[in-house]
Amino acid sequence: MTTLHHYNDQIVLTEVDFPDYLVRGAVLFGREAVVVWDTLTHPDDMQSLLPLLNDRRLIVVYSHADWDHVWGTAALQRPGLAVVGHRLCRRRFDADVPATLRQRRHDEPGRWDAVRLVPPDQVFDAPTTVLDLGGLTLELSPLPGHTPDSIVGLIPEHRLLLMGDTVETPLPCVPAECRLNRWQDELQRWLIDPRVATVIPAHGPWGGKEIIRRTLDYLEDLQAGRSGPDLNDLNPFYRRTHADNLNNCTPAQNPASTPHPSPAP
Ligand SMILES: [Zn+2]
Predict the structure, then answer these.
(1) Ligand 1 centre from 66 Cα, in Å?
(2) d(Cα 54, Cα 123) in Å, to the nearest integer?
(3) Which of 150, 199, 202, 261 has CA 20 to 30 A from 67's CA?
C-alpha cells in the first residue's frame, strides 16, 4: 500500500514500506505535464496515484533501472505516455532488468505476474536535460556510482533535489567496480550547489543537505579503509549491505579507486 505525502501543491511523495526499508518516489504536477519520478516495485504501488492524474501529459522518469524503481509502470500505461531515463538505463532493460524479473517470478510464483517492463523511450546522455512541465521544471543530471545509469532530478522552483539511490541513510549500496571518485565528485558538487535546500532520496529519511554529507562521509570511510558505522546501530539489512560494500571496495576488486583528494576550501 502506497502512502502519499503532500509536500506542497505541486509535489506529492510516494512511499511503500517494507520490513527493512522503504521505497520513495514523487509526482510533480506542472500546468501542462505530470511527472511520476519512479514507479516503485509493482503496478499496485501506483493505484493510489491514479485518481490524482488527469488528462495532462504524463511522463515517467526512472532514477535508475533497479527493480524497486521501475516495476510499477504498467499501471500508468496510456496513449502518449513518455518514459524518460538515462541511455544506460535503457540498455539495462535488455539485460539485468528482465533477468531479475524472471528470477523473482521463479522465487515467488504469482506475486509478480502483473509487472510489465516498460523501458525508457526517451533517453538522454547529455550532462543535463530539462523537462518543462509548465510552471515547474525538472532538470535531470547523471550521477553514476550506485549504478552506472543513476540520475538525479532538480526542481529549481522548490530548491528540491530528487536523488534516487545516490544518497541513503544510514548507508548506500556500493557495487563492485564502482567509480567511487566520480560518485564523490558529483555529491560534492551538489553539496555546495545553492539551488538545493531539500534532498529526497528513495530510501531512508528525507531532509536537508546533511543527507548528502552523510553519504559522502560513508564513501570516504569506505575508500580509506576506515571501519565506518557502528554495526549495533544498523538493522540486519543494512549490516549485510555494509558487509557487501566492504567486500566490493577491497583494493583488489576496485583497482581503479584512488584516494579522493580533499575538496577545495
Ligand atoms: Zn532502490
Answers:
(1) 6
(2) 25
(3) 199
Ligand 1 centroid – CA 147 distance (Å):
10
Do the Cβ atoms of 122 and 83 come closer than 8 Å?
A: yes
CA distance 150 to 147: 6
Residue 181: which pLDDT band, with cuts at 50, 70 and 90?
very high
Cα 95 to middle of ligand 1, angstroms: 18
What pLDDT is attached to residue 251? 59
Task: List the CATH number of the domain containing 206.
Answer: 3.60.15.10
Residue 262 maps to a domain: no
Rounded Cα distance between 74 and 56, Å, is: 18
CA distance linking residue 144 with residue 154, whole number of Å: 16
Distance 94 CA to ligand 1 centre (A): 19
> What is the residue whose three cell numbers read 504501488?
45
The three grid cell numbers given for residue 138, joined into one nine-digit string: 525538472
How many domains does the chain fold into?
A: 1
Interval 68-86: pLDDT, tens = 999 999 999 999 999 999 9
Does residue 258 sit within a domain? no
User: Is 241 part of a structural domain of the chain?
Assistant: yes
Determine the structural domain holding residue 181 and report its residue range. Answer: 2-248
